[in-house]
UniProtKB/TrEMBL annotation:
Record GO terms (molecular function): calcium channel activity; intracellularly phosphatidylinositol-3,5-bisphosphate-gated monatomic cation channel activity; ligand-gated sodium channel activity; voltage-gated channel activity
GO BP term (any one): calcium-mediated signaling
Gene: Tpcn2_1
Name the record gives this protein: Two pore channel protein 2
Membrane topology reported for the UniProt record: Multi-pass membrane protein
Lineage per the UniProt record: Eukaryota, Metazoa, Chordata, Craniata, Vertebrata
């Protein structure tokens, strides 16, 4: 019995530590079978299968009718699309639904039925599955001919519920909405007042020639409201004011005032409010993540202190070093953190660890990830040491940057000289010769750097890997060019041979050379700061990007259902026989507007939907369609763009404030996470808070 209990305590500690590492809740079953199921569920294989299933069910929209995968979107030129037979995509959907049913069943069992009824996300998960399965059955009963599929709009929910950080971000956004609503209400008041001013200012007169502003933009209240709403997005600026401005220049004051108040003041005020409020709520979310980590570590300490090998005479709870080592060997965690904790344990002279010592060991999880570069090789030869000093010096890198700049300038000169020449008149000798020279220099530079730094140290720098990879690709392309077309010579413009023509090969090489010029970024501190900020956003704010995918996907599916059949080749009206009334109205409205039709033909040819998206004109869009596009503008441009700006500012300001606190060491790279962005302002939970939360655990019963 004692041995079985010890094994259970060890397994519980392993799971609690893994929960702490991943910021997971510890409120789940802790018996032996449930712990095995829990670790199996969160294993890489199961999570990979779940992620693959979510990807597959989201990707089905690309092959389902009426979507299409074609090279061109122009309906006049694209080939007939492949429509999968009825039952193919439905079978794939059913397999995905089965995986999701297993997923929700395991989650519900692990947290326990009492906790299940408190979990709104799991309830919504089950409801989404029920509605999707019901819609799937209806689809099969209609032999896949139904026009509306509700389950397609619900698919992004599977992505949303699978990420705890996405749910936290969504909760933060939801909490920020009241503050956003106050500014949006002020924006609506601004829009309404100026709409009434516009209807009074541009009222109809007896002279029809002077009423162009009224006819086109301010005929009635909906038209006036839409015209000014589009002006708020600057999509119809200055078109909306041209008729009035042609009549009297003083009318421009109205449009200037509207734009200044709306765009410069209210929209930027919205950005400031979103930044202030969303930062606070995101900080609270990160604070709760820290509490989860501390709670998981403390739970592991409490169960390990219950081991039979713990001395009975101890005045306070403690954990043996041997038990902790046993847990660390089995726990799934980053090797860097595991090695750092083990080193600290070896340096510790005591055999027993208190709660404070135990918690302090795992503070290694909160530290910046530090990447140490390998040392340079040590040469015995005096000549090689001088070579190493010369080619490992930063000035050698600066010389390479100057050479890359000279290469860019030479390419620009040649492109300007040959801009108006026909392909048959172009002489590629000069461009081919200078490319050959510069590529040989890049190869020599790479080899000398490898000689000075050693291969391992050279490859440990991302800038060197980027530089070396492009150099190798350029060398391969240059060798292939010489093998097919020979060496550069005057009049070097042979006919097309192989997969690419000579001009295509030269263009590809030049594009890579231009791309290679980005190597200068690490040498410019301010530019490097901006780039690292953007890279950190890409790496750390995946939850934000995931919610963005959810919004885009939902609007895309809705748009497909609303506007399918609205884009047809010129002169083809046979589709109107089967088209719904809403689509007929849309097309009739489109073809009634001669002036706008010519503009769209010049810019978008037959792509009506692109014209709709760009112009958002009252004469092109049906009344019901305006709701769709205005909602899209509000969510994507007004709210989402401002949220992204807020997060970008937060990340940039944090890095800017820390730039003087940390020395720029050439051999050390710091990698930060979202949680570490706010590490300096987070509050550590007290022992009383942790113990109170542990005693509320629905499945874990502590001795004290």
């Amino acid at each position: 019995g004692a041995g079985a209990d010890n094994d259970l305590y060890i397994n519980q500690a392993i799971v609690f530590i893994e929960d702490a590492i991943q910021y997971r809740s510890i409120n789940h079953r802790v018996d032996s079978k449930s712990l095995w199921l829990y670790r199996w569920y969160y294993s890489r294989t199961c999570q990979w299968i779940l992620s693959l299933t979510i990807t597959v069910i989201l990707a089905l929209a690309f092959i389902e009718e009426p979507s299409s995968l074609t090279v061109t979107s122009d309906v006049r030129y694209r080939l007939p699309t492949w429509n999968p037979p009825c039952g193919l995509t439905e079978s794939m959907e059913l397999l995905c639904f089965l995986v999701f049913m297993v997923d929700v069943s395991v989650k519900s069992y692990l947290i326990g039925w009492k906790e299940f009824w408190k979990n709104k996300w799991l309830m919504a998960y089950i409801l989404t599955l029920i509605v999707s399965l019901a819609d799937w059955i209806v689809s099969l009963s209609f032999f896949c001919k139904e026009s509306v599929r509700i389950r397609r709009i619900l698919r992004p929910f599977f992505l949303l519920q699978n990420s705890s950080m996405m749910k936290k971000t969504l909760k933060s956004i939801n909490s920020t909405l009241p503050e956003m609503a106050s500014v949006l209400l002020l924006l609506a008041v601004h829009l309404s007042l100026f709409t009434m001013f516009a209807m009074l200012l541009f009222a109809r007169t007896k002279d029809n020639q002077q009423d162009k502003e009224w006819v086109v933009y301010f005929r009635n209240l909906p038209d006036s409201l839409t015209s000014l709403l589009v002006l708020l997005t600057t999509a119809n600026n200055p078109d909306v004011m041209i008729p009035a401005y042609s009549k009297n220049r003083a009318y421009s004051i109205f449009f200037i005032l509207f734009t200044v108040l709306g765009n410069l003041f209210l929209m930027n005020l919205l950005t400031a409010i979103i930044y202030n409020q969303f930062r606070g709520y995101l900080l609270k979310s990160v604070q709760s993540s820290l509490f989860r980590r501390r709670l998981g570590i403390r739970a592991a300490f409490e169960v390990l202190s219950s081991l039979k090998e713990t001395p009975a005479t101890a005045q306070q709870s403690c954990v043996s070093v041997g038990a902790l080592l046993q847990v660390l060997q089995k726990a799934e965690m980053d090797s860097r953190c595991k090695q750092a904790i083990m080193r600290s344990l070896k340096m510790c002279s005591c055999d027993q660890l208190s709660a404070a010592q135990f918690q302090k060991l795992f503070e290694e999880l909160d530290k910046d990830a530090i990447k140490q570069h390998p040392p340079s090789p040590e040469y015995q030869s005096h000549f090689m040491q001088k070579m190493q000093f010369a080619f490992g010096h930063p000035y050698f890198g600066y010389l390479g940057n100057l050479v890359a700049l000279a290469n860019i300038i030479s390419i620009c000169v040649v492109l300007v000289m040959d801009a108006d020449k026909q392909p048959s008149e172009r002489d590629d000798f000069f461009l081919g010769a200078i490319n050959c020279f510069f590529i040989l220099y890049y190869l020599l530079e790479m080899l000398l750097k490898v000689l000075a730094m050693g291969l391992k140290r050279y490859l440990s720098y991302p800038s060197n890997r980027f530089d070396g990879l492009l150099t190798v690709i350029l060398l391969i392309l240059e060798i292939a060019t010489f093998a097919v077309y020979g060496f550069p010579h005057p009049g070097w413009r042979p006919e097309f041979m192989g997969l690419l023509s000579l001009w295509d090969m030269v263009r590809l090489v030049n594009m890579l050379i231009v791309f290679r010029f980005l190597r200068i970024i690490p040498n410019m501190k301010f530019m490097a700061l901006v780039v690292t900020t953007l890279l950190d956003l890409v790496k750390n704010l995946r939850a934000f990007a995931g919610i963005l995918v959810v919004v885009f996907y939902a609007f895309a599916i809705t748009g497909i259902m609303l506007f399918k059949g609205a884009v047809v080749p010129s002169g083809n009206t046979s589709f109107l026989i089967q088209a719904p009334f809403s689509i007929k109205k849309l097309v009739v409205l489109y073809f009634k507007e001669k002036e706008v039709i010519s503009w769209c033909s010049a810019h978008f040819q037959a792509e009506v939907i692109y014209c709709l998206l760009y112009v958002l004109s009252v004469h092109l869009i049906c009344r019901w369609a305006k709701i769709y596009f205005v909602a899209w503008w509000l969510i994507s441009s007004v709210i989402w763009v401002n949220l992204f700006v807020a997060l970008l500012l937060e990340n940039f300001i944090h890095k800017w404030d820390r730039r003087c606190q940390r020395e720029s060491l050439s051999d050390i790279e710091y990698q930060r996470t979202v949680e570490l962005m706010f590490r300096d302002v987070l509050e550590e939970p007290t022992e009383e808070e942790l113990m109170e939360k542990l005693h509320q655990h629905p499945h874990l019963h502590l001795c004290r």
